[in-house]
Amino acid sequence: MMRQVSLGWHGPSVSEVCFGSLAISPLQGRVSLAEGVKVLRYALEQGIDWIDTAEIYDNYSQIAQALQHHPEVKLVSKSYSVTAQEMSASIEKARRELNRDVIDFFLLHEQESALTLKGHQGAWEELRKAKGDGRVKYIGISTHAVDAVKAGALLPDIDVIHPIINHQGLGIIDGTLEEMLAAIRFASELGIGIYAMKIFGGGHLAAHPQEALDFIRSIPWIQAMALGMSSVEEVDFNLKYLAGQEISEELRQSVTYRERKLYIADWCQGCGRCCEACPQSALSLEEVVGGGMVQAVVEAGQCVLCGYCGRVCPHFCLKIV
Predict the structure, then answer these.
(1) Are 200 and 259 in contact (CB under 8 A)?
(2) Are residues 109 and 249 in the same domain?
(3) Are 288 and 144 in the same domain?
(4) Which of the four, 18, 36, 82, 100, has the lowest number of CB atoms within 10 Å?
(5) pLDDT at position 307, please?
(6) What is the DSSP letter of 174?
(7) Domain limits at 119?
(8) Looking at residue 226, which CATH number applies to its domain?
(9) Which ranges carry the 4Fe-4S ferredoxin-type domain (predicted)?
């Protein structure tokens, strides 16, 4: 039986591990639709009882297929909506495509600061309304920023925050690991549920998964973690390790993480859309030597391999390999 946790003072009881579905979504393209469904169903059979997705992941139909025999599983979705009208449409899209009358959690996606939250006030008010009329049970934000955790903790009716956190502080866009931990503690002490994202740093820390998992487990203000998994072996390794079970050398070797990177094809036209979409500011435009044009380049140390850039490229130049 997987360890159950209470997500904040007023949140539900959930498994310590949330299935992060970005890893099986078309946005990352690691596995086929059918393979992703297989992995997700396997994870649910092992006791994971909630799934993290987002409108941008474009995998609602994949999740709905996996959930055909698991109506008890809770769902988290997220949206970049700014206005109340946009948020209402996002909620309805999730309800319709996930075949759920009620979405368990709905979050403002990738908030950056108090100013960003202010700009999304209309969407937040619609989330509060949806919580009041029963379309959504719990509301919150996801973020890669210290300031957004601190400001988000003061939002009216907020239930949950989904921050980036890992033992090297990779991916935090506006501060240090220590500052993020202090912000998480502040939010948690207000009774807000905290579940961590990118604990493997987008793959940069995946060569030593035990250290990454142990770090999150050691933080008393974090109740749960979303883990992106794209194979049955990854599910087995993570859940066995967290349960304190013996891990065979064969299983350990099967999840030895190969280095992944963002590939930018040489036909890049230098439009800059990827740079605007990158939450980590890992992409920039540089002049091609002797070419008289610019192309996108990536700072590998800043990239967390989310794949958001590939979604906006009009020429399909970017992919994670």
Answers:
(1) no
(2) yes
(3) no
(4) 82
(5) 79
(6) S
(7) 4-254
(8) 3.20.20.100
(9) 259-288, 294-321
pLDDT at 81 (0 to 100): 98
Over residues 155-198, the pLDDT tens digits come to: 999 999 999 999 999 999 999 999 999 999 999 999 999 999 99
* 3-class DSSP assignment, residue 194: strand
Same domain, 215 and 293: no
Crossing angle of helices 84-97 and 121-133, in 10° steps, is: 50
CA-based nearest residue to 25, from 256, 265, 260, 305: 305
Where is the domain boundary, 236, 254, 272? 254
Closest CA to 157 of 183, 137, 181: 137
The average pLDDT across 105-130 equals 97
Q: In DSSP terms, which residues pair with 295 in a beta bridge? A: 286
Beta bridge partners of 108: 79, 141
User: Are 57 and 151 members of one domain?
Assistant: yes
For 77-88, the pLDDT digits (tens) are 999 999 999 999
Distance CA 184, CA 280 (A): 20
| pLDDT tens, residue by residue, 236-286 | 999 999 999 999 988 988 887 666 788 788 778 889 999 998 988 999 988
- Grouping H, G, I as helix, E, B as strand and the rest as coil, residue 160 is strand
Is-contact 16 225, C-beta < 8 A?
A: yes
Last residue of a domain, one of 230, 254, 278: 254
Number of domains in the chain: 2
Residues whose CB falls within 8 Å of the CB of residue 30, separated by 6 or more in sequence, listed in order: 23, 24, 230, 320
Are 220 and 182 in a shared domain? Answer: yes
pLDDT at 290: 66
Integer-rounded Cα radius of gyration of the chain = 19
| DSSP code, position 255 | T
- Take residue 294 and report the two structure tokens written for it: 């610019």
Return all residues near 95 (Cβ < 8 A) that are at least 6 apart: 101, 102, 103, 135
Same domain, residue pair 118 and 148? yes
Task: Tell the burial category of 244 from Cβ atoms under 10 Å away from its Cβ (0-12, 13-18, 19+).
Answer: exposed
